[in-house]
Amino acid sequence: MISADSFWTSSLRSIPRGDAITRILAAAIAAVEPATTVRRAVLRQGNRLVIGGLSYDLPAYRRIFLLGLGKAAVPMSAALAELLGYDLADALVITKHFPLESPPALARFPILTGNHPIPGENSLEAGKRALEFLAALREDDLLFCLISGGGSALVTAPVEGIALAELQTMTSTLLACGARIDEINILRRRLDRFKGGGVVQQANGATIVSLILSDVVGNPLETIASGPTVPDPTQAADARKIIQKYRLKDRLPPPILRAAENTPPPLPADHPHFARVQNLIVGDNLMAAQAALRQAKTEGFHPYLLRVDLQGEARQVAFDLATILRQAWQTGDPAPRPACLLAGGETTVTLRGNGRGGRNTELALAAVTELADFPDAMLITLATDGEDGPTDAAGAVVTGETFRRALALGLDPQDHLQRNDSYTFFDALDDLLRPGPTGTNVNDLIFLFT
Hints:
Elements: H1 10-13, H2 18-31, H3 34-41, E1 42-45, E2 48-51, E3 54-57, E4 64-69, H4 73-84, E5 90-95, E6 111-113, H5 121-135, E7 142-147, H6 151-154, H7 164-176, H8 181-190, H9 198-202, E8 207-213, H10 236-245, H11 254-262, E9 277-283, H12 285-298, E10 302-310, H13 314-331, E11 339-345, H14 359-368, E12 378-383, E13 395-399, H15 402-408, H16 413-418, H17 422-428, E14 432-433, E15 444-449
Parallel strand pairs: 4-5, 4-7, 5-6, 7-8, 8-9, 10-11
Antiparallel strand pairs: 1-2, 2-3, 11-15, 12-13, 12-15, 13-14
């Protein structure tokens, strides 16, 4: 569990309400702690499980399997394994960070680590092991899938004719050009046997229950981890639009272009196997936001939820949110001071330089100039997984003093922004949030305090 003390930064230490703000951040993460979300969703009554209004009689199945996939796979899988006990015949867990201590409930089962955000050799091996695991299932088996963000990269089983290096090129190119995760996953589903319903195809007709921790705006099931237990609703024309939109025809390997155009989905949406699948969202960005706002009210702030569907270029979103924060500071609208305004979602970054950072620190950096000289105003960005892009930061803190402090250290916010070097900027100010990997993943939160 991430503690409030793990969120301290220089700016938070310097203000009277800093301790309250750290508790608000911690409350958001605690609400979507993966094991907690699973325990809320699954009720065991003797030999029967009740999940999302459906009942599963465990003795009715030959064997019970568990497949955990994503950044939150270990705690989610451990919670369900504890509930199942020795009714669980076999399990495979694939995640990003190997746990310091394997949970006792998973001690008899393998835990693998894949690569993220770019698939690598570990992801390829994880895909091979996952397909072997699924091959053992039969129609009279029950498979639980514990799915969370990051799964698209952590496990890969490329379709015939696609090499790992070509997938890596595609992923890197899409991430650099500012494509949204739903757009990236349209292409991924057409190139991988594991995605877009691939698990359903490989499970040989077994009954499947997927418990899903959403890291995608709006919770579209086909996009979370590229929808391993969901039919692919898109077609070749949708992949073609993404390639055209970002002018990728000459930047992607020819085998990727051919497969995106010609590969059919693993199973059509009307296949009878999908009638044996239950997909249930157990935690999402809204749940984290609501918990943060409840804590904010307890701490004496006037809470206000702006939205949980933020998307778009981080710099533009920063401008929009800074405008709202300045308005709140000046007028008390949409909430009087002291206020905690909150937005959630996931922005994108178009890379122009070779600096270090992620979408959350870039958003924060773009807000520095906009909030200059607004005392008692604060913007905080937070990646709920604790990792903003390829860094050890979860986000950053911006106040009305940040611009002045930066100039005193010889830091030019606009120069760092042009070079996509937000991490270096906030590191010098000791205003990076570094709670460490949280074990969960439900997109990002942006807090506006006045």
